[in-house]
Amino acid sequence: MSILSGKNILLGISAGIAAYKTASLVRLFVKTGASVKVVMTPASKDFITPLTLSTLSKHPVYSSFTNEEDDNAIWNSHVDLGLWADIFLIAPATANTMSKMANGICDNLLLATYLSAKCPVYFAPAMDLDMYKHESTLHSFKTLKSYGNIMIPATSGELASGLVGEGRMAEPENILQFIENDILNKLPLKGKRILITAGPTYEAIDPVRFIGNHSSGKMGFEIAKASAHLGAEVILITGPTHEKVSHALINMVPVVSAEDMYNAVHRYFENSDIAILSAAVADFKPKEVASQKIKKSDNTLTLELEKTKDILASLGAIKTHQFLVGFALETNNEIENAKDKLKRKNLDLIVLNSLNDSGAGFKTETNKVTFINDKNEITEFQLKSKAEVATDLLNEIIKQLNA
Ligand code: CTP
To answer: Do domains 8-186 and 193-402 have the same CATH topology?
Structure first.
């Protein structure tokens, strides 16, 4: 799945011959799952028709401040367009449009939208080779970059004038790739390796029976997805669950028992930067596992249980650089118990769920959590979806790591 999926992309087209390539560009963006709107300078309509672009983008195309053909003229708000966009790409960016952008001139809708946009702005210049090298153009490049705008350089090749040199707008496929890579490289967890545990564990009694719990694994899977969306490489060690995930950055390691989970976690911990242990690990397991199915010969059956290894505490004991996060499900004296757990297990952050809160816990879609960090700072949240809780948790971790 492209990082652009679900994003709002505003394409600004200025008047260069390369505008004919924007039809392909719109198609490519739409294919990634992005929503695409187009704003054109009036002169660019000589190079490609608004009808082509509105058909491909499935949105009206904007080129003036009001909808002139309509008797009840509608104001096309540059502010709304600028705020709608997650990404604003100006392609082709002509020498004229770039010079105006650099100087705050806003005599058309594209330029006014540029001044209103708060999102990242990319520009892909296109012009003849001598224009591309002119001092004033170089000055525009420099000024726009100093505003934080991102240049997608032109390439060399045959130009519309017949001359050969630098000035060809980057090909649509390369523009798409450039933007995807740029976003991926700037993700806050890019290059971080995150280890996550999820789901229940099953402790065998005999070949067909086990002791388990009602954990769905949903919270851990949401944390894995949110981590990957922020650019992290994820190892998701999960007990038996119906949850599914498919993402290039998520490597799933299925396990069954607490012992399996312990071994898997220790295999990956050393190379991790962050470990988030959200699994509901069984605290006890049968001391002996019967090799044959246990027959119901007597009226009662006594199982002797022994403690499983505490995976979280074992990581707290050996951690070096890793940021370690545990969960605590408490029923009484919640904050004090969670603080105690944080200290005892040498954690950097603990996520407290209280069973006293409705909507929080095992089988629900929602969760209500409180974060406590190693400075005993407490952040309480409202009831939210587990996906939102996952995002809150990762934002908190990023904040702590950057503190
Ligand atoms: N955990 C673990 N290994 C275990 C048990 C729990 O890694 N064998 C982790 C869970 O993934 C979770 C946290 O520890 O992050 C939950 O701890 P919890 O079971 O609530 O706390 P305990 O320390 O076992 O304390 P108590 O049962 O006394 O509340």
So the answer is: yes
